[in-house]
C-alpha cells in the first residue's frame, strides 16, 4: 500500500501545510473562550451586568475560580438585600452568561460584624426588626447556586443572636479571621465589601 503525500506520508509535509495547520490550531485555541455557551442564570432574582463587546477581561471557562467575599459593612438600604450579596449574585450571573459555573464552595461569603442581621431567619428578623429579612431570598438563591455562606461565630453571639435564629443556609464558624485565613491559604482571592 502506498501512502499519498501529506500528513500520512513519511516525507516531510510542505511548509505551507504546516503553517496552515498551526494557524488553524491557534485560531481554535484562542477562540475557545468565545465559543463558551451561555448558561442559565445562577441566581434567578439577580441581574446580569450589561455585556461590553470587546472587553478585555471576561469570565474564563478555563479558570478554576476561588473567590471570597469579605463582608463587614452594614446594609446601605435596610429594605433591600445586602449590597455585597447582590454583587456576588451579579458576578455569578455574569460568569454564567459567559459559560462559567464555579464548583460548589468555590465562591464564599464570610460575614462578620454589623451585617450579621442579614443572615437571620425571617421569623428572627421579624421579631427583632419588625419585618422579614430582605436578604433571605437572595441568600437562599446564592446557597442553591453553590455559594458557601459563613458567619463569624464571635460577632454573631456577641450581638446576642441565638443559634436557632441563624438561617439554615448559613454555616456558623468559630471566627471570621480564621475562616478568611483558611480560605486564603487554600488559594481564594479576596473581594472586600465597600
Structure description:
- With 194 residues, this protein is an alpha/beta fold.
- The chain has 2 domains: 1-35; 67-192, DsrEFH-like (Hypothetical Protein Ychn, Chain: A, 3-Layer(aba) Sandwich).
- 34% of the residues lie in helices and 12% in strands.
- It contains 6 helices and 5 strands; from the N terminus they run αβαβααβαβαβ.
- It has helices at 15-31, 83-97, 122-129, 136-144, 153-158, 176-185; strands spanning 67-71, 107-111, 148-152, 170-173, 189-192.
- Strands 4-3-2-1-5 form a 5-stranded parallel sheet, sandwiched between helices.
- Helix 2 (83-97) links the parallel strand 1 and strand 2 (107-111).
Cα-atom radius of gyration: 24 Å
Q: Give the fraction of residues assigned to helices.
A: 25-40%
**How many strands appear in the DSSP assignment?**
5
CATH class of the largest domain: Alpha Beta
The number of domains: 2
Distance between the termini: 72 Å
CATH topology (fold) name of the largest domain? Hypothetical Protein Ychn, Chain: A
- What order do the strands of the largest sheet run in, or round the barrel if closed? 4-3-2-1-5
Per CATH, the superfamily of the largest domain is DsrEFH-like
| Count of helical stretches | 6
Structural class: alpha/beta
Query: What's the pLDDT, averaged over the residues?
Result: 87
Sheet having the most strands: 5 strands, parallel
Summary keywords:
single chain, 194 residues, alpha/beta, Hypothetical Protein Ychn, Chain: A, 5-stranded parallel beta sheet, 6 helices, 34% helix
Amino acid at each position: 500500500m502506498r501512502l499519498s503525500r501529506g500528513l500520512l506520508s513519511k516525507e516531510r509535509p510542505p511548509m505551507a501545510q504546516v503553517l496552515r495547520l498551526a494557524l488553524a490550531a491557534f485560531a481554535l485555541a484562542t477562540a475557545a473562550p468565545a465559543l463558551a455557551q451561555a448558561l442559565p442564570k445562577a441566581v434567578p432574582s439577580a441581574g446580569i451586568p450589561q455585556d461590553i463587546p470587546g472587553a478585555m477581561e471576561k469570565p474564563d471557562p478555563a479558570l478554576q475560580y476561588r473567590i471570597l467575599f469579605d463582608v463587614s459593612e452594614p446594609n446601605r438600604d435596610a429594605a433591600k438585600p445586602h449590597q455585597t450579596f447582590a454583587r456576588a449574585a451579579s458576578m455569578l450571573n455574569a460568569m454564567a452568561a459567559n459559560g462559567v459555573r464555579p464548583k460548589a464552595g468555590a465562591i464564599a461569603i464570610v460575614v462578620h460584624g454589623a451585617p450579621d442581621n442579614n443572615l437571620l431567619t425571617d421569623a428572627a428578623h421579624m421579631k427583632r426588626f419588625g419585618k422579614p429579612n430582605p436578604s433571605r431570598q437572595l441568600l437562599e438563591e446564592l446557597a442553591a447556586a453553590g455559594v458557601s455562606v459563613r458567619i463569624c461565630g464571635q460577632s454573631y453571639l456577641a450581638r446576642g443572636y441565638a443559634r436557632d435564629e441563624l438561617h439554615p443556609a448559613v454555616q456558623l464558624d468559630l471566627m471570621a479571621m480564621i475562616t478568611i485565613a483558611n480560605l486564603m491559604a487554600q488559594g481564594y482571592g479576596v473581594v472586600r465589601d465597600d
